[in-house]
Every structure is written in structure tokens, then in C-alpha cells.
Amino acid sequence: MIAWPTAFSPREFPRETVVGPGGSRVAVTSWCLARGPMPDRRGTAVLLMAYGSAQSLDEESVRAYLTHILQFYRHAVPTDDEVRNLRERYQAVGGSPLYDITARIITATQRALDLAAPGAFRVFMAMKHSSPTIEDRVRRIAKEGFSRAIGLPLVPFRSRLSTEGYYKLIREVNRELPKPIEWCFPGDWNLHPMFLALWHRRVVDARRSIDGEPYVVFTNHSLPGRIMEWGDPYPKQFEETASALAKRCGLHQWSIAYQSAGGGRGTWLGPALNDVLAELIGTGYRAIVLAPLGFVMDHLEVLYDLDRDAVQMGREHGVEVTRARMPNDDPLLVAMLADVVRGALQGTAVKPRKGKKVAAKRAQRTPERQKTPHG
What we know:
Elements: E1 11-12, E2 16-19, E3 25-28, E4 33-34, E5 44-50, H1 59-73, H2 80-92, H3 98-116, E6 121-127, H4 134-143, E7 148-153, H5 163-176, E8 182-184, H6 193-208, E9 215-221, H7 234-249, E10 254-259, E11 267-269, H8 273-283, E12 287-292, H9 300-303, H10 305-316, E13 320-323, H11 331-346, E14 363-365
Parallel strand pairs: 5-6, 5-7, 7-8, 9-10, 9-12, 12-13
Antiparallel strand pairs: 1-4, 2-3, 11-14
Helix pairs in contact: 1-2, 3-11, 4-5, 6-7, 6-11
């Protein structure tokens, strides 16, 4: 058990402002109402990280965001067509709410941590591919005097090309600090009881909104197929989580699919959502529920790829396609994040349970088009 300081006097820490989509300024009480200063900064910093998003709908902002992504993964720069395509998708959904939702998650998580251990944690927000960047936030945490920190990406499935990318950025900046911070990265939480309960409720609600017995498709963001050569846990964790939820929801008709594959000439994890939908429509299913387990909040891949493309595909064939609500800042998600943070320091990670093995073709060639993840 960790012994935290107990003598505090109430004071309100300052709020910071970040620029959100459309140029809006989002106020984030990164540490809310703390119970006074932490002596010698012996508290723990918590860095909650999201993928990022274009910070406005203008071409310059979209180009900067896409350039950051392509430089990170391919050491390339986007073409004008790629920038225009991404900008049009943002415009079609009125911009991404990722910043606003992440800010609410940050504030709520701080409150949840303060309830259990007043003043012991300070929660910071960072983005992988937009401001405030992970690099800047690590330096900020060091400047604030913290010697210990927890890094937690808002990503449910672990992968060398996903979660490890967040950790890599933290490690690189941390090595450059005059006094490196002691970092802790929590264990897997895709089978955390609260995470399963969160999605169970959403799948049940979505099924009830449709007459009859809808077919359920659990979706996840696709990644390059080469991860299969590495024994990457990403596909297995997705399949285990989908299987656990199907059992919990009592589903008899369900499958998994990967969505929002990127461009390039390589293969990507499959089966692709469009192929799964086409097969279900051809088989005669008239109602389909999509449950995007690979994401925790509304953003471009949910609002455009599912709510527009997938729904339109169903509509064209007289099939009702609906989506389960995203967790966003649901109190259950917040409680789970707080539990994962506390467990990271106490050495208690949720142990994965063996799930039903799901047969799926995990790699397939995707169309040559650019789709930018998580914005």
C-alpha cells in the first residue's frame, strides 16, 4: 500500500487552455480541486494520451496534423489530394469532438483520483499527433518537479504500432531530461470488468433500439498486417474482448471486423468492415449493430466511417445499420481509468482471461486510399 500525504489545505489549481477543433479554446482543469500543494512534489503525475486531431477545419491545420502522422509512420509528406480528402471528411462531420471529450475525461479522472487519494495525483492531457504533444507534456511534468509519473494511452488494445508508439515518445524525451522521471505504464485493461460492463450496456441498448434480432459486428481500427509476423497482441486482445462481450450479452449472431485501414501498398488487418457488411447484406440480414471496441470516444473514424459510410451502405440496400454509443466520459470509464492508474502503482494489473477463439482472416489488401486514424 502506498502511503500518501494527508495534511492538506484546500486550494484551486489553475486551469489551462488548449486549442480545440474550429479554433475553440478548451479549458481543462487538469488537476481540479486538489487539497493543497504536494510536499516536495512527491505526488504522481498521470499523463492521459489520445491520438490527436486537426485543431481547426482550415487547410493549414489539417495539413500540419496529417504531416505529423505521416512523418511519424512513413517519413513522408501528404499530397494535396490526401489533405483535401481528410479536410472534407472533417467538414462533413462538423469537426472532431476529440479535444472536448478528452478534456472532460481528464477532469473527471482527476476528480475520481482525488476522491480516493486527495492531492496524490495530477492528471495531464497529451496528444500523439497534435498539441499539446506528448513531448511537451513530459517536459512540463519534469518542470513541475515530479519524479514519478504514469503514462496511459486511451487505447484498449496493445500493439507495437499503437500503444508502444506513445511509450516510445515518452522514453525518448525522458532520456533527454537533466533528471529523468520514473515512468510506469499500466497493464492491459481490455478485459477489465468495468470496460466489459461499459460495452455490455451499450450493446444491449443498441440492440433494444432495433426491432427483431440484429446482427452485431464488433469493430477495431485496422493496423498493417505485418504485425502478425511479430506475434503482436493486438488482434488477440480484440478477439478476446469481442468474445467476452458476446458471451456476456448472450449474442448468437456476431462477428468482428477491422475499419479505417490506411493507404499504401501493404496489407492491413481484416476482415474489412465493408466486406463483412456486404456479406451480411447479401445473406439477408436486415438489421446490424456496430460496436467499435477499439475506440473510447467519438471522433472521425466513428462519426464518418461508421455513422456516414457504414450507415449509408446499409441504407442503400434497405438494411438498418446503427452504432452503439461510445464511452466518452461515462462515469464507468472514468472509474476504470482511475482504477488502472492506482493499480499501476500498486502492481495490480487486470489479468487477461481466456476468451473464445474467433476465426477471422486477419490480413487483407485494402484499397489505395488515405484514411487518417483517431482524429
